[in-house]
Amino acid sequence: MKKIFLLLLTTFFLINLNAQNIFPVKLAKCKTSRFCLDCGDTKVSYSEIDFDALIQKLNETLSLNGITGVVKFQVLVDSMGQGCVLSHTDQSNSTITKKIIKELNKFNRWNPAITNGKKEEKTSVTLVFTIKDNRISGQIERVDMKAFKKSFDRPTSPEIFNKAYNYKNENLINYKITAWNIKNSNLPNNMNDNITIDKNGLIWLTIDEGLVTFDGKEFKNAEQNITDKGKFFSYYAIATDNSNTKWVYGTKNIYSFDNEKWVKYDTTEIGIDYAYEIVNNPKTGEVFFCSDKGLTILKDGKWSHINKESTKELPSNRVAFAKRDLQNRIWIGTYSGSAMIDTNGVVTNFENSKTILKGKTITSMDEDENGNIYFSLYEFDRKDKQKVNNDEGVAIRYADGNFKQFTTENSGIPFNHTTCVLYDRKEKVLWISTDRAGLVRYDLKDGWENYHNENSEIPTSYVSTMTFDNEGNLYLATRQGLVKIERK
Question: Is residue 2 part of a domain?
Fold first, then answer.
């Protein structure tokens, strides 16, 4: 879910939580925290005998006279061989489709996908059921990965859920917007999800199955060279620490690069082999690694952990984001709620509070010079699983301790699912990125502006995340390349 919680789809992480479903009719019974799309050195398969028995049962119990057609089902297969239907193509929700779903959800004779000798936790596989000549048949339809990835490489129209606000965008003329993509540069592909800018001003950017640097003129391959990448290898999180070392999560490993050599870290020594998010804390020199094992902290060469074993008040070990504020308090967003640890080690679990953080996961944060803290939010326990514009938006915790939430209902934010917030100290404005409505500029008073591919030079409505360079220019990692926004 980057930004938010990371969903392994087509074997790379997608930040858009609404992209879990391949087909238009979505079901809400499956647990979908993370899965891969038809992945593995050994693909998902099923016991032929047992699947034939399932087909025979369908033919014996369904009335198929005069019916012809094709329905596709997206099934999640877990490591135990149990299936769960996540989505399908039959928008009529016919009795036949419902019966197939019922049988597939009971079917437990799947052979899980295997990667590097290890069973995948969850894998999405497509089944095609065809009705012809009064008989039904079914089989796996393998995903054409190149075609699937290509389907993402196109700008989508912005989805503006806020119909009440009039966006004048008066400040747009004050910015120069430059975009680099596969057509106007040597950027290998447009799928950019993570970005960091190091102390030398060099931009590091994750791309689909790769890592590149950009010096303002040329993109160069910068992938680690100490692990055999095999059939698939990709990078999902990146940050630069105070010593200008780059920290990267690549497939199954945590790496660092000190501008001379790459180092791979032993899982048994550091306790993790992946991270949803890597966050540098400039004031304390700590690097935070957020994972299902809690919060892993590196400081002065030593690794430590904050989890439910050491901190029972933590809502969950599944940490999506964490960062220190200027008062040295740690703000933590987990899949089961958010928490704050003060300088005395006292934990505030916001699930036990009446604040707007109750029911929310902090997914990014920034702070202004007055001690006001800005958060992007994710509603982790939504009652309506099919709803797109949820109770999220952004929140401000003012220096006096009071909170305020901004959504499409009470502000000019165009869409409630945000991927990143950044406070601009030069302009005294808050930048907010979204994965459906583009980029938002909020002047912290009453002025909201919304820039996207239909009203600006920003090439997409999907912004994965953002960062500032040393000069205060704003960079966007997007699904249509790299974007720079600088004041004229």
Answer: no
252 sits in the region (left: phi over 0; alpha: psi -120 to 50; else beta) called: left
165-184 burial: b if 16+ Cβ within 10 Å, else e: eebeeeebeebebebbbeee
End residue of a domain, out of 151, 176, 206: 151
pLDDT 10s digits, 139-158: 999 977 666 666 667 788 89
Q: Across residues 247-267, what is the average pLDDT?
A: 96
pLDDT of the residue at 33:
60
Is residue 1 assigned to a domain?
Answer: no
- Identify each DSSP E strand in 10-113 by its residue range: 12-14, 25-26, 36-37, 45-46, 69-78, 83-88, 110-111
Please give the structure tokens belonging to residue 316.
């969950």
Res. 2: pLDDT tops 60? no
As for how many domains the chain has, the answer is: 2
- Same domain? 447 vs 400: yes
| Domain ranges, residue 431 | 160-487
Structure tokens at 216: 């303002």
CA distance 53 to 103: 11
Ranges of beta strands (E only) in 28-106 are 36-37, 45-46, 69-78, 83-88
User: What is the pLDDT, as a whole number, of residue 297?
Assistant: 98
- Beta-sheet strand order (sheet of 481-487): 175-180, 481-487, 474-478, 463-468
Cα pseudo-dihedral 93, 95, 101, 105, rounded to 10: 130
The Cα–Cα gap between 14 and 5 comes to 8
Q: What phi, psi does 103 have (nearest 5°)?
A: -70, -40
Same domain, 271 and 403: yes
Phi, psi of 292 (to 5 degrees): -75, -5
The Cα 66–Cα 135 span in angstroms is 10
Same domain, 273 and 389: yes
Angstrom distances, CA of residue 363 to CA of 262, 291, 457: 28, 13, 27
